[in-house]
UniProtKB/TrEMBL annotation:
Source organism (scientific name): Arundo donax
Name this polypeptide is given: Uncharacterized protein
Superkingdom of source: Eukaryota
Length: 53
């Protein structure tokens, strides 16, 4: 059976951004908050609150 790789990629993207969108955004948010905390050590604390909206 021949599987179109492009279609498979689209399906995996749809799965990632559809069903697992909440998990994905939580991971991204955690990553951004970690970066923000690291920058907060150097910068003014208020700048990190741009990520939490």
């Amino acid at each position: 059976m021949y599987i179109n790789k492009h279609k498979l990629w689209e399906l995996s993207l749809a799965h990632l951004f559809g069903f697992n969108f909440k998990k994905y955004t939580q991971l991204v948010t955690k990553h951004l908050l970690l970066e923000a905390e690291i920058h907060t050590i150097i910068n003014i604390r208020g700048k990190s609150f741009k990520f939490s909206h």
